[in-house]
Each structure stands twice: as C-alpha cells, then as structure tokens.
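Readers of this paper often ask what the protein records in our data store actually look like. Such a record has a labelled line for the sequence and another for the backbone structure tokens. The tokens are whole numbers drawn from a learned vocabulary of local backbone shapes. We quote a single record here, exactly as it is kept in our systems:
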Amino acid sequence: METIRVGGVPEHFNLPWHLGIENEIFSREGLNIEWTTFAGGTGQMAQALRTNEVDLCVVLTEGIIADIAKGNPSKIISKYLNTPLIWGIFSGKENPIQYYGEIYSKRYAISRLGSGSHLMPIIDAQNKNNIIAPDQFVLVKNLEGALASLSALEADVFYWEKYTTKPYVDSGQLKCLGEFVTPWPCFVLAASDKAIQKKSESLRQMLNTLYFINKQFMNSIDAINLVSTRYKQAAKDVNNWFHSTEWSTNDTISQKMIQNVVFTLKKSGVLPTSFEPNALCVKV
C-alpha cells in the first residue's frame, strides 16, 4: 500500500479528505493517506513541501504559485475547488478602526510571509490603488495568534476565510470590516517534484478517488449538518457556504486562470515582471 503524505488547513473545505480516510475509501484503493494539519496555512505548507515533510498539500492558488516562482520544487497537479474564497477582513473589538477604507495604513496580522493572509491584503490594496509597506505586516503564525494580536492591539487588520472566523464575530471578539473575494478558484493540490517522480501512479489514483469523494460529498443530504457539527458553525452559515462552494471532480487546470494569477501577482509586486509561468502545473 502506497503512503501519500498530505497536508491541509484545519478548515471545513477539507472535510472530504477526512471522510475518505475515516470511511477507508482511499485504503480500499490501495492508498494510505497520512494527513497533517497545518494551522499556519499556505506559507507553512509551502515550506513543508520544500523540506519533504509532505508529498502533497491543499494550498491557496496564489500562495503556491508565488512560492514555486521563488524556487519551491513542486507543481500544481489539480484544482481542489472550482470556486473562489471569500476573505473576511477583521479587526479586534477594542480597535478604533471602523471602516474598510481606513485599513491601508494599519498593521496587518499575517500567518507567514507568502501566505494568503499576506498576499490577499497586497492584492486588495493594489486593486484600490493603495500600497502596503513590508513593515506593516505582523507575523502571528495562525488564527489563534491573530486573535491574540488583534485583542492586544499589536495588529489592526486580519484577512482570513469568512466562515471560519464568523464565530468570533458572532461572539464579539472580532468585528468584520468587509470582504474580499479571491478573483480565481482558491485551492489547488500541489505535489513535490520528488513525489511526482516517485509516486505518479499513486497520485493519479489518489486524485481519481478524491474526485469520487468530492462528488459524493456535494450530493450528500447530510453534508451541511456534518460540517456544522464538526466545525462548530451555525447551520445557516454552513448552508450559505456549502451552496457557494464547488469541489473539483477532474484535473482540468485553466491556463488562463494561471495567467490571471501571475498577472495579478506581478501587478502587486509579489512576482518580478520577468517571471514566465512555464513550469507551474503538470499532469500525473
């Protein structure tokens, strides 16, 4: 039985993986999926791919493209979601900031450099003809670190997935200043070059199995209740999220989508203008 080491964030998007592991769907196909949770997000997972801690990760599209461009020996092998991510823009309840338009001169809590919480504010600011300086970013490692930093007024603003953070808004710990929608499908599957070379057949089997699980999950009458219970989110919020989310059921990757991401990252100064997206994706 081939072992594939997979990493992902502790969020509801990844429930199909856990159901596939728990219900032995992967193992019946001769695959041993070893799941590692990375609370630090895409920046932490990109590093894990670099150091051979994992074979594959479920990562933010823009984050892994930026890291591959900077030398990460990995490739995108499939989309994971066909839909964008809705980022909530948050501040601490005691922070005097009140409006979305006030944020661009403030301090931003980010999990890691190169993570979605780092790249999205840069892209959002660029779209509104603003620039965020490097010294405005405060490293906080993960969501828990951000909550502590915002509460202590050590940072002012934090971008994170809307529904994951909504319970903290409901409890009054955070206030939501606005939303920013990723202008492309948000999650992809990226595998290390080493795994692609040595485990390509198993990766292909894993993808086919995952696509089957994704189809089953999207058609499940119990999906909303399951997500609500497991991730402690209100059923009405899960209902809204579930019906705005589509999981991928094939390995088609739009080259135009890749070009869009690269163009935006160049425009935002994340990638050099000389970068050409020639070796970002591969079929296994």
Observations:
- The domain at 86-181 is CATH 3.40.190.10 (D-Maltodextrin-Binding Protein; domain 2).
- Residues 66 and 270 are 7 Å apart (CA to CA).
